[in-house]
């Protein structure tokens, strides 16, 4: 059922529950999750150097793809659900363009000389941005092996596109700054810059689909919501218990719902917390969760399905969550 045609009412969001659970043989930490554009498929990467492909609608695994030689992280679908790109975690720092049908590589993207820390595909085109510990941000096109643009940037950096695909947010943990760029002139100066609180740590930045807000998913406390136009803090999402540190990177515990009206986040107490953004009535407000959804795992990674009333969480196990009242 499409999440675009049904409003997330109180009874619906409170009824979400873990409907499918997947336990993996090696009990290895899952480091990233991504849905395809249709919402039918999900991919994950794990520290045991495998990529798992799932049919999210049927709730079943489709394929396990090994990447033992190079490792894997940050797997993202292109706009073709039969292909993905992902970062290497060892040996070299090449980004690989994978075709699921025969596990073949369609292209290699070489240039980074250190670990890739963030990778995002444009919502409108098959171009993507990467950030690396080599202190660069690079723009790529899946049709060409060479980078399309390069920008020096102190690492570790986090990259994110706005819904139009024209604006990118690049943020630096090192100096607690975030900058907005026109992706068509990435090598020019940012058109806006703003600061984050000292000591705040994050590993994911996400624009709401209505382009009203920017979410910074925190790793050591409460999440922050910024106004995407004037870049002021409009809300702190409180009630978080910090998720214990991991030996492996992961891609964030918080996500907007597709309508941009709620935020779901994994919590360090094992629950999934939900905030109603209609409670934002000014700037700098603190919002309490409207509910905590029970779970039996630490939801270190959380991503909301772009088309359906479903979200996924993962740490050493993966869960698909569905509402019980629809």
From TrEMBL:
The keyword Nucleus applies. WD repeats lie at residues 109-150, 253-279. SUPFAM superfamilies: WD40 repeat-like. Pfam families: WD40. Keywords: Nucleus, Repeat, WD repeat. It is found in: Nucleus. GO terms for biological process: RNA metabolic process. SMART domains: WD40. One of its GO terms (cellular component) is Set1C/COMPASS complex. Coiled coil: none annotated. One of its GO terms (molecular function) is chromatin binding. Belongs to the WD repeat SWD2 family. This is Anaphase-promoting complex subunit 4 WD40 domain-containing protein. It comes from Wickerhamomyces mucosus.
